[in-house]
Structures are given as C-alpha cells and as structure tokens.
Amino acid sequence: xxxxxxxNTGQPPSENWKASRTWAFRSTRVSTPExxxxxxxxxxxxxxxxxxxxxxxxxxxxxxxxxxxLLMPGMVDTHVHINDAGVVDGGxxxxxxxxxxxxAAVAGGVTTLVDMPLNSVPGTISPAAxxxxxxxxxxxxxxxxxxxxxxxxxxxxxxxxxELLPLAEAGVAGFKCFLVPSGIDDFxxxxxxxxxxxxxxxxxxxxxxxxxxxxxxPVERATALINSQGLDWRKYSTYLASRPNEAEIEAIxxxxxxxxxxxxxxxxxxxxxxxxLPILKKARAAxxxxxxxxxxxxxxxxAEEIPDGATEYKCAPPIRSVANRExxxxxxxxxxxxxxxxxxxPCEPELKHKDxxxxxxxxGGIASLGLALPIVCTGLRQxxxxxxxxxxxxxxxxxxxxxxxxxKGSLSIGHDADIVVFDPDEEWTVTEADLRFRHKxxxxxxxxxxxxxxxxxxxxxxxxxxxxxxxxxxxxxRGKELxxxx
Length: 486
What we know:
The two termini are 43 Å apart. The chain is built from 12 helices and 18 strands. Strands 1, 2, 3, 4, 5, 15, 16, 17 and 18 form a 9-stranded mixed sheet that branches. The radius of gyration is 22 Å and the shape is globular. By secondary structure, the chain is α/β, with parallel strands linked by helices. The protein has 2 domains: 6-72 and 413-425 and 448-473, Roll (Urease, subunit C, domain 1), CATH 2.30.40; 74-401, Alpha-Beta Barrel (TIM Barrel), CATH 3.20.20.
C-alpha cells in the first residue's frame, strides 16, 4: 500500500503554507457523502470549494498528495466535560481546562467539540454562566466548540426553567439533564414533572434535550441491597450490580413516553445497556424524535476483564458484559444507535481513590478525549466493518445533533475545511505521551490500537502533525465558538 507523500505526513507545513491560497488535498481514499473514493478536495479561505476527481488538480492549486491514506472530515465530539469556567479557587478547572482538552482533541482528529454544562463552576445553567465559559475559552481553544446548556431541578417543580429560553437565545446548542443524581451538588437531577416543564418551555425551539438516562429508584434499591449484604466495593462486580440495566431501561421508557407528547428532539447520552435497544428500535419505527449515542468505553472494554480495584474504569452507566458490548456494536450497525461520543469526564487523580480501590468512593468518569477514532477503527475492523462508518458515527451524525450540519462533519462543498489525515493500518500502543489531556490516568493506557491520526486541519490550517512524542500541535489557538445553524 502506498504510504502517502512523505512531506505531507508527520511533517510541519512548509513556511509558504497559507490557508488563503488554493490547496488541493488528494488521496485514493476520501470519505465523501457518497462513500470512500479517490478524490481531490479543493480548499480556499478555509472552506471546501470543490470535491473533484483524483486527476482534477487545478494548475493554480498547491497539491498535498496523501497516497492511500484516508482523508476524513474532522471528528465532532458532542460529549466533553471541560470543567473550566474560569474559577480557580473553589472551582474545578484543575480537573480539565480548555487548553489541555482541546489540544487532546486536535491530536485525535477532533476539530469540533460540544462542552457539557457540568462539572464547571458555575455550571452552564444561565446566560451569565455561559459568559463565564466563554471567557475561560478565549485564547485557549485549539478546536472549534459550542456549549450545551443545563436543565437542573430542585426539591419541587422548578430549577432553572426560567433560564432555558434566555440560554437558547444566548447560543447554547441544546440542553442536558440528569434523571439520577449527577454526583455534583450544584447540578441537581430532574424528575418527570420537572422534565415536562422543561420540554414545554423548549417547545418550538428545535433544540434537543439530552438526558443521562438512568432512574434513581433502581440504583438506590440495588445499592441498598449491596450494602445490606456487605459486598466488597473493591470488586467491579459490586459496582456493576449497583447500576442495573433496569435503571437505563426504565429511564428510556419514560423518555419515549415524553417523546409521544412533546415535539422537542430527545437524545439519550452514553447508552450502556443493550437491553434497551428493542424499545428504542420500536420508538424509531413509530417516528419518534429520539436519537442515541454510545461511547468508546462500552465498545472496547467488558466487565469480565476489569480488575478489582481498577477505579479508572468507573463510569456511569457502567461498562457491562462482553455479550452486551457485542450487542451495542450490532445496534450501531443496525442504525438504532446513531453516533459515538467520548463522555470525556476526567477528574483530579486522587478522586479516583486508587489507594483504596473502592468503586463507591471513586469519581465516575473516563478520560479518553482524542482516542475515539483509533479505538472505534480498531473495533470496527476486528468485526469486519466498513471504514465509511467512522465518518457517519464520529462526524456526520454528531454534527447534526449539535446543529452544525452544513458547516461541520462532512467533506462537502461549503463546509469548513476540517480535514483529518488518517492511517487506518498503523498499529500502535497508547502511552502517556499520546495523551494530551491534563491528567494521564486512563484505562486506555497500554491499549493496542490500529489506526493513527497523522495530520489535522482546522478550517484549512494545519494544527497537528506527527506521531507520539514527535507530534506537534500548532502553538496558536485557532478555535472559535460556534452557533447552532437554523
């Protein structure tokens, strides 16, 4: 297999590189909306102006020929916890920040991310909090970004429902809520009556409501039973039993019931339980406006393989069995699950309580930003899947959820020239040098992957190139805040 023109893979652009010039990106494998094919992308002023045949290189264009490497649109990660809203003392900016998160993203071929409304202080539950987020991002974003707003509850029907429309007008892409305690006291979960109030407020806005789909009741009952039996919280099997399938299934059934009544698009984040797939398939067949994501950890790991005390694997919902993992892959291939997002949710290492190894005490979240593309590529190839699905799951569908269709997620005319040069055949092992996010504690350390990002372009600018310790990130933070498109 051809290995691409060497000066175009793993080397910085020449000094005469300017995005304002006309550039031609050529490969025998370009991921277009019509599928993988030989093509040439003509780029000018940060936009794709033509998708031409492989031979059709304008005489005025500067050619970058990538041989057989895969050219893909920049990935869109719609589930990222950056945690930074500019508060230093008493805040959670030490968990993750815009600079480290977005550099991790760009090194993994992610050119757009959507920031979750927690765990930053303040949470993004008001226009004022959104402004704090913007100030934290200013000059510190290496990729383009947009924010989700939050829907929070209180002891009665209420919460921040009066802030929802002002947040929509202020520019959030949609809203996120929890149906179970979030682990963050200042981001309270919502019950069904509060959800109904929020959905009524959002009527006609077109903005999606994203839900952490676990109900509190099944989790509380399972946890009480575990504690009454005195089970060992260092065992992963104990933690898994505390987050039963029923918690997800009952939450999704409730969301489907609300989708029948309200016209607001609903989105299930980080689906873990494959037992929910049949009811989701039925809801889709009935034409309900409900979309679904899963995450790399549910497609890569399995409960049977997680060592006791290995709290770096803790997330909620939990990683389930091998059989469950394979059923999720089938759900993706069948189109019941629409997309894949990381749910990058890091914390300061001591909050994982590696000293005790107790899953009940550890923060629930997995650090993985920038690793999704090679992880999913590896799993897909192990199962004989078509590489075209990578673009569908990691770029096109997430861009649609965030309201960025026509700008992001596709190598099409008029779209931003967000281009990833990807070698789907390179085999490598994840080390700390490959992790650009702040804290290097991740269950993916040591994972053997197939597929590596060689270069990343953001709006026509080369912002990442190279491999591992020899890779380089453009020193200039070129990321911009985006707005949802009509």
